[in-house]
Sequence to fold (290 residues):
Amino acid sequence: MPQDTHGDHEAPARAEGFNHARTAQSVALLEDYTEMIDDLIHEHGEARLTDIARLMGVTHPTAAKAVARLKREGLAVSRPYRGVFLTEIGVAMAARVRLRHRVVVDLLVAVGVPAEAAEIDAEGIEHHVSDATLGAFEAFLKARG
Amino acid sequence: MPQDTHGDHEAPARAEGFNHARTAQSVALLEDYTEMIDDLIHEHGEARLTDIARLMGVTHPTAAKAVARLKREGLAVSRPYRGVFLTEIGVAMAARVRLRHRVVVDLLVAVGVPAEAAEIDAEGIEHHVSDATLGAFEAFLKARG
DNA sequence: CGCCAAATGTAGCCACGTCTACACTTTTGT
DNA sequence: ACAAAAGTGTAGACGTGGCTACATTTGGCG
Ligand SMILES: [Mn+2]
Ligand SMILES: [Mn+2]
Ligand SMILES: [Mn+2]
Ligand SMILES: [Mn+2]
Fold:
């Protein structure tokens, strides 16, 4: 993972995209989990670890470690054997991530990608869409009606 | 990384996108390095480890490990203290990856993303673009002239 | 030719994300 | 109320991708 001691100090222009991609990847997991937890809370009133794990397609210890990282980074809170909840920051991230996810799917569909492929690919693509790109996507979609 | 023992055996539909993204990420590094090595060979006749490292934005031991993985997976060959070369499979991957990279950048630009952001974001996005999506991108671009 | 700088190899550290296996707690059902 | 089932915690293993530090080889140059 991007242990990111610094690394960027004199990277050639060519390397910029790679460094960005590495950074994006390191937050992708946080984004997916916060969005998922937010979804579960809205749908079932709480986010149980088992449900998180099942829907993320991982085993429960993997989800537990992810939640531990969310807590460490101030995005979530939880007490032993109880559900997981998002902090204010976590909720904000979830909202941002959900919007971007939807925009990406819509953009893909708008340019002709089949809905099913759009959903699947968007799950990975979304984490690499910068604000500039997101803005362009929104403008493109708006100009389409 | 996707240690992928199997995992997918009874994943709910919701998890499919996440599993795909994890798999894509596990080959992203191979794709970027093969493309870079191919670039260097075309530009300088050979791909030296130091150049690979510098252009990828990592230290040379990191690049060395990546090359070791490329060799292990049958994508590259090299002898100690000499340059790195791609196998037939490696060359094929590089060609495929380069095409997809270009199509992604073109698509982004076509929908209004600034060129600079398009280049940077494409470096991450490309690895999550399925064949179906790539085909749709190409069709969209063609229909634009 | 021989030396020195640059390139490459290698060892070893760390953080992460995944898993299995097992321990413990909570909930459920009779 | 208690036993069984389900959920959760935790330890430990593994592969990966970063890094630093140091050893070795190559190659160019005086
Ligand atoms: Mn995602
Ligand atoms: Mn998403
Ligand atoms: Mn890339
Ligand atoms: Mn690329």
Notes: Chain B has a mean pLDDT of 93. DSSP finds six helices and two strands in chain B.
